[in-house]
Specification:
Helix content: 25-40%
Shape: globular
CATH class of the largest domain: Alpha Beta
Strand content: 15-25%
Number of domains: 2
Strand order of the largest sheet: 2-1-3-4-5-6-7-8
CATH topology of the largest domain: Fructose-1,6-Bisphosphatase, Chain A, domain 1
Number of helices: 8
Largest sheet: 8 strands, mixed
CATH superfamily of the largest domain: Fructose-1,6-Bisphosphatase, subunit A, domain 1
Radius of gyration: 18 Å
Length: about 260
């Protein structure tokens, strides 16, 4: 499909950065059987991927700022635009040879996400969105699922793990949703969770404690696919708070009632 100039830049950067990732993923599978393991190798892959993305995007738009998982914040002279980058979202999956991870690139303009690209280099699924122009998987337009009852819904989430997140709060939340939903899944890559909601594969998604680079592109995808994405507790923009709920409007309202923290 034909992309706008800005999406062309983003898609080109993602595809270029994906080539060494595919090679590295094959090597990670070999490292699974070694005593040392693949963690150090993957860290290098993460940083190399981010550098490729940075260089490609900076070459095309040299005045834009960056917010990156590895490299942090880099201020540009533009003052309005920021690239928000996760070079490998789903690093734990990558480390374990699980082919479910993605490059995620969001573009923020004056506080609003206006373009997003999420690319899984192993499956070659490319999710794209631009504000007001819809969301797409490769060349197919996306719409969120139309299911209106939690009892019919498959809900995906993030699960706090060792040293991360509020385990007690999650146990309370999962108990509430588990009692009502048709199914619950945990896939380990926030960008793809959101992309799958946009594609109607999942009916809803919630998670707390995320970073902007995890969700910036995915938030736009869901909204452009007709879905609703907000802070789960009704706070400011979800990519700022890191506490996210995404679904169609009907399921969003029902799930927020279950998950929203009481004030005070």
């Amino acid at each position: 499909m034909a992309y706008s100039p800005i999406l062309n830049v983003m898609v080109g950067a993602a595809r270029k950065a994906s080539r060494p990732i595919r090679r590295d993923f094959g090597e990670v599978e070999n490292l699974q059987v070694s005593l040392k393991g693949p963690a150090n190798f993957v860290t290098k892959s993460d940083k190399r991927t981010e550098q490729i993305l940075h260089d490609e995007l900076a070459r095309a738009r040299p005045t834009y700022s960056f917010l990156m998982e590895e490299g942090g914040s880099v201020e540009g002279t533009d003052g309005q635009h920021t690239w928000i980058i996760d070079p490998i979202d789903g690093t734990t999956n990558f480390i374990h040879g699980i082919p479910h991870f993605a490059i995620s690139i969001g573009l923020e303009r004056a506080g609003t996400i206006v373009a997003g690209v999420i690319y899984n280099p192993i499956t070659d699924e490319l999710f794209t969105a631009e504000r007001g122009q819809g969301a797409f998987l490769n060349d197919r337009r996306l719409r969120v699922a139309a299911r209106s009852r939690i009892e019919d819904a498959v809900v995906t989430c993030g699960i706090p793990h060792l040293g991360r997140g509020d385990h007690e709060l999650f146990q309370t939340e999962i108990t509430k949703v588990q009692a009502k939903a048709a199914g619950i899944r945990r896939f380990g890559a926030a960008s793809l969770d959101l992309a799958f909601v946009a594609a109607g594969r999942f009916d809803a998604y919630w998670e707390r404690g995320l970073e902007a680079w995890d969700v910036a592109a995915g938030i736009l995808l869901v909204r452009e696919a007709g879905g609703r994405v907000e802070d789960v507790d009704g706070g400011p923009e979800a990519h700022e708070t890191g506490n996210i709920l995404a679904a169609n409007d009907s399921l969003f309202t029902q799930l927020q009632k279950e998950l929203k923290l009481p004030k005070g």
